[in-house]
């Protein structure tokens, strides 16, 4: 079926083929033309890949190594590897939200993408999601849009994947207790990534509304302890994930065990906080992007601390991983993470389509 469609495309694009039509799509390389080039020349519409399919195509086992490589490439500051400006944001004041634009170009990998993400600080009664996103994947040579895909699953999984990498690199050896603060979409993806890729003896969760934490416990199925306070959840924890929509500190340094690792995912505006000053000042602070953290992280800006290193610096062996110290990974989210995740989804989609 796909082969026929491809032949129609090649025909429409008037690409001369002096071979019989009995070829496999991967033989296109003989003609020095890629599927996306053929599609671009034929003016083909982009492939549309929605949430369920993205979820079925994306797996942490494949995604996390790609993210790790991408974080390293980003921190090398080599423009042939990654060009990714700090996200531009447009306030949606009436709706208590922001539109973020996150373009990325990976020249060496031939990946060009942009994510459009709206994020909201919704009131308690709202049933709308806090994050709504779409990723556009383009052919860098022609500018042709190859794919439009759901960005929510990508955002949830690539964010959790980056946090899991931070824990792998920065948590103390033999870590046993994981605490998750917040029980929304990111909490679910973090639970999945952390329990799939790392191993913990105990997982504790806290939410500012207990019923939210109970619902989370029921939906993940695995063993989870619901805690009545942040202090109860984090006392003695080796790894703490903060995935709340709070704009004021929820996690205080005095409750955090020395040597614990904190993946701080919420509070992505310059005046929003999740962590208090004492924790920020006690910890060695790592970030996904130094520029991103200096521009967008209230925890970094308002505490006045320095970002010690990017995660990519640790991956590249340029900066040490202080596993024995208290560490904070301040995650803001990066376009390059979306780019590699979207590219992986597209590769998997093509592999599936070829088999049809
Ligand atoms: N670093 C990154 O790459 C990304 C960060 N985020 C951020 O992560 C956070 C979580 O996102 P989602 O899970 O998608 O949102 P969500 O709305 O699904 O979950 C938010 C959780 O925070 C809780 N919450 C709401 N107000 C609170 C408050 N005042 N104090 C404590 N908890 C509160 C909610 O009950 C819920 O459990 C948000 O701040 C979002 O902006 C989201 C996507 C990517
Ligand atoms: O990277 C991302 O997509 C986001 N970071 C904060 C809200 C959305």
UniProtKB/TrEMBL annotation:
GO BP terms = thyroid hormone metabolic process
Task: Please name one Pfam family that this protein belongs to.
Answer: OCD_Mu_crystall
* Gene3D superfamilies associated with the record: NAD(P)-binding Rossmann-like Domain, ornithine cyclodeaminase, domain 1
The reaction(s) catalysed by this protein are: L-pipecolate + NADP(+) = Delta(1)-piperideine-2-carboxylate + NADPH + H(+); Delta(2)-thiazoline-2-carboxylate + NADPH + 2 H(+) = L-thiazolidine-2-carboxylate + NADP(+); L-proline + NAD(+) = 1-pyrroline-2-carboxylate + NADH + H(+); (3R)-1,4-thiomorpholine-3-carboxylate + NAD(+) = 3,4-dehydrothiomorpholine-3-carboxylate + NADH + 2 H(+)
Record InterPro entries: NAD(P)-bd_dom_sf, ODC_Mu_crystall, ODC_N
Gene Ontology CC annotation, any one: cytoplasm
- What does the record give as EC number? 1.5.1.1, 1.5.1.25
Single GO MF annotation? thyroid hormone binding
**Assigned protein family:** Belongs to the ornithine cyclodeaminase/mu-crystallin family.
PANTHER family from the UniProt entry: KETIMINE REDUCTASE MU-CRYSTALLIN
**Oligomeric and partner information:** Homodimer. Binds the thyroid hormone triiodothyronine (T3); T3 binding inhibits enzymatic activity.
Per its record, how is this protein called by name?
Ketimine reductase mu-crystallin
Q: Which organism does this record belong to?
A: Pundamilia nyererei
